[in-house]
Amino acid sequence: MTKVTLKDGVNWVGVVDWNIRDFHGYITSRGTTYNAYLVSDEKIALVDTVKLPFANELVEHIKELTSLDKINYIIVNHVEMDHSSSLPVIAKLAPQAKIYSTARGKEELIKHYGAEFERVEILKSGDTIKLGKKTLTFLEAPMLHWPDSMFTYIVEDKILLPNDAFGQHLASSGRFDDEVDQHVLMEEAVTYYANILTPFSQLIVKKIQEVVAMKLPIDIIGPSHGIIWRKDPMKIVNAYMDWCTGKVVKNKAVVVFDTMWGSTDKMARAIGEGLASEGVEVKLLKLRCTDNTDVVTEIVDAKAVVVGSPTLNNGMFPSLGAFLTYIGGLKPKGKTWYFFGSFGWGGGAVRGMEKMAKEFGFEVVEQGVELKWVPTAEELKKCFEFGQQIAQKIKA
Ligand code: FEO
Asked: Which domains are seen in the chain, by residue range?
């Protein structure tokens, strides 16, 4: 492998997973990487590992820089298996290495990989490990992404290794931000934020403010997925602040729907036209054509989400149930939710969706448009007007 050096003595030893397309349900159309870093001085530290099928590749990458019996420390920033499932392999090949994680990380490591991880030593915010001239210091970052999560900071090199934070599911031959297409990079960064970190937005803002208050100079941010930010690390920090605080929200509506025989589709198109006629940006996303991964990404900068379903067996269409369950867990803030749908005799889809959204704590505007069988021209006009009314609320 071509050596990937962040700064003298700090090397990327991770792997590229070019062909993963389903990351626990998140559709990763551009693959991903699992980033691990070797920090070499008088002592050597390995920060994070990779997903188990790539353990041998990680070992080969380390061997190109040092032999495994020279590793003194293994730092586990995060226990989720994409970053830790090679740890048992590395721990066997480097039995002399001391292993460190947060207290929650230790509990999780034992539960994932067994009692041999009772030997893990615990780190707290502010703890340091001296490698020689280089110093590692640590910052607990619970829920970014799991309770165990932690950031590692290489003091003298001004390198932050925040694991999942600031990552992207993006496989590429370039390892750095200045080596990839910027549009693709930011598209994957916002998709990652939308699908992984949305529920923790307030914690992210607090953690960024904490790091700013510590006045840690940052030259490079090396996340655990995707490219490393060296040209402009503040670009992703500022983008996170904008996403987390809703600063990016604009006069935009996302119409999310599914259809059985085309009635709800016709309604969605008429509502979309009503929205657009008022100058509001609109996206129509049919769930059987668009994965939830992309739908929730489109919602990041939208003010309104307009959800439509036909009635099937007195309830909503199953794809709507899956979508609402997914977004109910992510809980994006600051959106207004509207519902519409069609039915044959009893109805129930709109009622069911509104109830579900209210239970998630979403701001729901009730009494959306609902119609029987196939929409007439008059009913489609009502849908158009419904779109116009939503647009007026968005603009107000
Ligand atoms: Fe990339 Fe939370 O694991």
From this structure: 5-245 (3.60.15.10), 252-395 (3.40.50.360)
